[in-house]
Q: What sequence folds into this?
């Protein structure tokens, strides 16, 4: 019987795998829910409202799992790159995902079914904490894109910075309170872009680790 030795390289690869998996898990879970849950509209609703209703536990779990995977990725990046602030900021984003799962957003604009149209008439304490935790996490993610960029090749550094700028623009749009379908869809696109950045950066660093 043979055993596989656990080496620093295998630990780093395992942690970075979290960054590869986090995006697909989050996006596919959100997409499947959005396509199958009555009343949900991608042009009007962010993924956060999926945490409401009888199946809300699915999105809550989605937030928590992807948060843990993101924290693992941050630990892996810390082991591969010399900078500390990038992984720390990415870990803050991971923690924020767990928190927004715990403190769910308020129902809004017809979701779940039976909810009045438009924004909620009043914001609950957990809805307030959801927005605060999300805002902190999104700011940390943008900063992480720039911090990590300084330790990447020139092409990947620009990709990282551009991702940070576009994600900030997407978040600024929804944070403004706009209900425009273009703004809502733009934020969905920004989320996909950010997860793609994390996945591709993780793969790049995995290849660097085994080279």
A:
């Amino acid at each position: 019987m043979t055993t596989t030795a656990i080496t620093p390289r295998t630990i780093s690869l395992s942690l970075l795998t979290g960054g590869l998996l986090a995006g697909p898990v989050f996006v596919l879970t959100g997409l499947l829910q959005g396509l199958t849950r009555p009343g949900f509209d991608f042009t009007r609703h962010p993924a956060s409202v999926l945490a409401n209703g009888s199946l809300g536990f699915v999105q809550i779990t989605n937030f928590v799992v992807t948060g843990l995977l993101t924290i693992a990725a941050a630990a892996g990046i810390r082991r591969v790159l010399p900078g500390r602030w990038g992984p720390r900021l990415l870990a803050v984003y991971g923690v924020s995902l767990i928190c927004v799962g715990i403190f769910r957003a308020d129902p809004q604009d017809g979701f779940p079914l039976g909810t009045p149209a438009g924004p909620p008439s009043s914001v609950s304490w957990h809805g307030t904490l959801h927005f605060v935790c999300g805002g902190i996490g999104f700011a940390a993610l943008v900063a992480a894109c720039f911090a990590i960029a300084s330790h990447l090749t020139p092409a990947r550094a620009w990709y990282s910075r551009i991702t940070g700028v576009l994600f900030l623009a997407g978040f600024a749009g929804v944070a403004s309170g706009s209900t425009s379908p273009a703004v809502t869809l733009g934020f969905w696109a920004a989320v996909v872009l950010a997860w793609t950045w994390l996945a591709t950066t993780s793969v790049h660093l995995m290849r660097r680790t085994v080279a």
Notes: Residues 174 and 186 are 9 Å apart (CA to CA). The mean pLDDT is 94. The radius of gyration is 18 Å. The chain has six helices and no strands.
